[in-house]
Amino acid sequence: MPPELATSAVGAGSLADFTRRDLIVGQLRERDAAGIIGELSRILGQSNAVPDALSFYQAALNQELLSDSTARFGIAVAHARQSGVKRLQFAFGRVPDPVVWGGRGSWPVQLIFLVAVPATESTRYLHLLSGLARLAQNPQAVAKLLAAADAPSILLVLQETGLP
What we know:
- This protein is α/β, with parallel strands linked by helices and about 160 residues long.
- Helix content is about 35%, strand content about 20%.
- Strands 1-4-5-3-2 form a 5-stranded mixed β-sheet, sandwiched between helices.
- The model is unreliable at about 1-10 (pLDDT under 50).
- The protein has 5 helices and 5 strands.
């Protein structure tokens, strides 16, 4: 099902329901947390997923400085909650080699999700985070994301991870 037509029912769907092909970057150019958040924020802004890429970037970076978003198996899930965001969705990007993300004790990451959260969204956001946590705990799914050749292949992998 195209993300634009995704059901709003809690407990239905997959991770792919929260992104689109134009929000997926197979190879990010940046190589640090601030640069990657900036690159993914620009993509969210260019696709009208966020109303102002700069303010979204600042909010996401501030949130990242407050709490480390890394998970096992090389995944980071950064986010920002803003009133101008109309729909819960994420941009996704990969780097070819692990990058240092966050402070001491953080996991090195290769897969980065940047989630745009509407100010009033709670329940679906928690379900999305639960789905991302499920993905992070599945080394086979992580390996598939790393090996996927292009955005459509990445979307297929994301479709395999259901929401609770």
